[in-house]
Amino acid sequence: MADLVTPSFGKVTSSKTLDGHTGFIWDVALSGNGEILASVSNDMMIRLWNANTGHQRGAAKDNGHSNWVRCVRFSPTGRFLATASDDMTIRISDVNTGFTYRMLQGHTGRVRAVEFSPDGRTIASASDDFTVRLWNVSSGSLLKTLNEHSGWVRAVAFSPDGKTLASTSDDNTIRLWDTTTGNEIHRLIGHASSIRAVCFSPNGKLLASGSQDKDLRIWNTTSGALLNVLQGHSGPIRVIAFSTDGNLVASAADDLTIRVWAVPLGLACVRVLTGYSGWVRAITLSHDENMVVYTSDDMTIKIWSSA
After folding, report:
1. Which terminal residue of the chain, N or C, has fewer Cβ atoms less than 10 Å from its own Cβ?
2. What is the extent of the structural domain holding 22?
């Protein structure tokens, strides 16, 4: 791939390739300050890297997970790391010591996704047991179980104000939930197949969803109305990311491309990034958008930055 752009269109020219995992890398996450990168894989390793140098800070296989680790997220302060696994648990670990601070148990199926609320007090988890669960980070106690889905739950995302949670499922629906009451606010119907990715815009007014049906859909979060159906990918969409200013949204699919869509231009596709050697499973951006990290099925992590 000749180059990669951040959603603000600034070209990032330098790149690093991080090697070490011996299995598909399911997910990557950047700490809020952009200094630490975490990655998880079906080799069951959780690795921490210096995002600026690419040097590995540490690796753990003894944090308690006994099966593939599918998702990793930093808490808003960067102190804790949450990991979700096929062993049906979520682990909250101290980033500096690796100590497991809390183990969240209760799901009866693989846990595919986990997200911290914006204030860091709550964790949402998505599972093959058809449920979404909300947990208290401090105590580890279960707050609510959201039961309306009728298929595996693939992804969850908090709105920027933390008042709404979105979840996607193999039942081809997206549910918007009130995080205080646990009530369903909207049921978004339109995708023709399993929905693998979901993301709120930075102002919380839009929701983007990506599906195995190859479509990227944009929804109004207040009314639940469908605003746009964006077509162009020739494979299932796995990843969605909004730019920090909300003007662009990027989608990655099994067609080995990343497409960048411009919100101010009616969500026209303004860039197609090619050259990947495998499915892009995760993308993460630093808050200043000077760093883009992605991973694909080649078992490596690529860091593109302006530095």
Report:
1. C
2. 12-304
**Total tally of structural domains belonging to the chain:** 1
Residue 103 lies in a domain: yes
Q: How many CB atoms lie within 10 A of CB 251?
A: 28
CA distance 58 to 97: 10
In a domain, 225, yes or no: yes
In a domain, residue 272? The reply is yes
**Neighbouring-strand partners of residue 206:** 220
CATH number at residue 52: 2.130.10.10
pLDDT tens readout for residues 201-251: 999 999 999 999 999 999 999 999 999 999 999 999 998 999 888 988 989
